[in-house]
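User: Could you write out the 3D structure of this protein bound to adenosine-5'-triphosphate? I've included everything you need below.
Assistant: Certainly. Input first, then the structure.
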Amino acid sequence: MIRKLLRRVFSGRSSPSAQPQVVPRSKHGLSKDKISSSARRVTAGLQEKGFAAYVVGGAVRDLLLGLEPKDFDIATDATPEQVRSVFRRSRIIGRRFRLVHVMFGEDTVEVSTFRARQGGEQEDQRADEHGRILRDNVFGTQEEDATRRDFTINAMFYDPTTEQILDFCDGLDDLKARRLRMIGDPDQRYREDPVRMLRAVRLSAKLGLKIEADTRAPIKSLAPLLANVPSSRLFEEMMKLLFSGHATACLLQLRQEGLHHGLLPMLDVILEQPMGERFVMMALKSTDERVRADKSISPGFLFAALLWHEVLAAWKQSQEEGLSPLPALFKAMDHVIHIQAEKLSIPKRFGSDMKDIWALQPRFLGRSGRRPYSVLAHPRFRAAYDFLVLRCDSGEVDAEIAEWWENFQKADEETRKQMLLPDRSPRKRRRRRKPAGGNAEPGAAPTGSE
Ligand code: ATP
Ligand code: MG
C-alpha cells in the first residue's frame, strides 16, 4: 500500500502510473448531467451488478473542451457476455474485437471490455513486418485499457455516479495545456497502427490542439506506412477527416506532415496548381460550413471536387491524343478513379455520384434546343449545378454560365424559351460539332472560360 503510494508520488509524468489520478468534480467541473441518459443507464446498470463502468474516450475529452460529443462509449470490466446478460436489449457485435451494443429506444450505447495494451506476447496479438498490429482481442485491466489508447486526452475514464475522472496518463494536464500527446513511444505506436498519424492531425485540427513535439517528430518519416493499412479503414478515417467540419485545416496539416500522398495521391499535384488549389479550398470551405451548420453533405460531391482538376488534365490529354470531347471525358474519369483506387478506393456508391457530377459538366454548355431540359431533369442536376457554381467561383468557367442556369431553373416556360435563343449562347454555336453518338451532347473544351 505504502509502496504503491510512493510509486504514485514519485512516478514520472510521462510514463503512465498503475494508480490513476482520481480527480473530483470540483477540479474538473464535468457534471453527470452532461452525460446522455442512455450512457448513464448503462454505467449504473453495470455498477449495480458489481462491475466497473465508465464513460471513456472522445466523449470525456469533448465534454471537458466544452464540445458536444458525437457518442458516448462505455468501458467496463464485465465481459461481453456479462454485459449482454445485464441489458435485455443488447447484442454482441464485431469480429476484431467484440463489443456490446445496448439499445434504449433510438439510442445505441457501445460498451467495450477493458482491453490489453497492443504489442504483447499473447497468442492473439500479431503484427506485420512493420510492427502493425493485426489482432488485438485480448482483455486487460483498466490501466492497460488506458495505455492501449492513442492519446493521453483520449484515455480518461469518467464515472457518472461519483463524477470522478480516473486519469492514468495525465490526460487532464495535457488537455488543459491544449496538447496532443501520444501514450508511450510515439514511433512504436504509429508502427502498430499508422492510422494514429491521421488521427493526430484530425484531432489537433478539429480541437485546436498542438501536437506535442515527440508525438509529431516521427510522423514525416513513418508516413509511407499508411500504404499498408487496409483501404476500407483509410477511407473511413478520411471520411471522418473530411466531414469533421475542419477539413480545410486537416488537409493543410496533412500536407504539412507529408501524409496526403497515400490518401489522395493527386492532391499534392492539384494543390500546386493555383487554380486547382483554389477550387479544392473552396470545396472544402463550403463542406466545412455545411457540416458546422448541420446541413446534409454529399461525399460524392466532395470527392468529385477533390479530383476534378485531375480529371481536367486527363481530359485535355485524351483530346490531344485525338479523342472527341465526350469519349475523352469518360476515359479521363475512369483513369482518375482507377489511379485513386490504387491508394484509397472510393466506394462504388460515391463513385457513381462523382461520375454523374463530372459527366454533366460539359452538358451545361449546351444551351439550345431540348438539351437544357434534359440536364434539368437529371437526378443529379442539383449537385452538378452546385459543382458548376464552384467552378465559376474559382475562376475556371465564365460566371455567366452559372448565372444562366440559375435563371433558367427559376424561369417560367415562356422565359425559358426566350433564354434558348441562339444569340444568348454564342460560345456554344462556335463550338458545336456533330455529336459522335446518337444523342450525345455536343463537344466542349475542358474549360469553358477561354
Ligand atoms: P471522434 O469520435 O471524435 O472521432 P474519438 O477519439 O472518440 O474521436 P473513436 O474512433 O470514437 O475516436 O475512438 C474512441 C476511443 O478509442 C478513442 O478516444 C481512443 O481512446 C480509442 N482509439 C480510437 N482509435 C484508436 C487507435 N487507432 N489506437 C488507439 N486507440 C484508439
Ligand atoms: Mg468517438
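The first strand starts at residue 21 and ends at 23.
User: Perfect, thank you.
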